[in-house]
Amino acid sequence: MKSEKKSSTSAEDSFGLFSDESHMRAALRLAERAAAEGEVPVGAVAVKDGAVIAKAWNQVEMLKDATAHAEILVLTAAANAIGDWRMDGVTVFVTKEPCAMCAGAMVNARVERVVYGLADPRCGACGSALDVTGFKGMLHNVAVRGGVLEPECKALMQEFFRKARVRGAKTAKPEKGNSTAEEEGKGKR
Fold it and tell me: Does the global pTM surpass 0.85?
């Protein structure tokens, strides 16, 4: 398993207690929870002064809310934890590169840094498809680090969608003209 190492000078980081990788592992555990609940497996952790202040995972399907991405939910929980909407000194760790909505929320909340695992070349807004977090006209820019534990994040995402395709194939209705007589008789009364 290969991961990018951050150079550090603090004793805590030299032992890996508060490293980007350890916080990303916490986010991965939350992404696994999302997958177990039938959600796209994205997990997020907000950290301030080395301590986890909020955790969240995707809950779009459960809440029937298109905005219930892990990043949005973790920002709300972090704001409640620190008693302010301003995320000064907060780093958000998330297993997949944030979309435009989530990256924009991080800019508006003044998140100091976002660390993500899996890049999203199609919709990622932290530099892959768009650069919302570093757009020069914004009042705030968010520092970005990508690729932390990317193989693990990618494997989780791929496994989730592989299983979804298998489930879809098992429950898919036969195309018209390819069904059996018994299936065609159902519903005709």
Answer: no
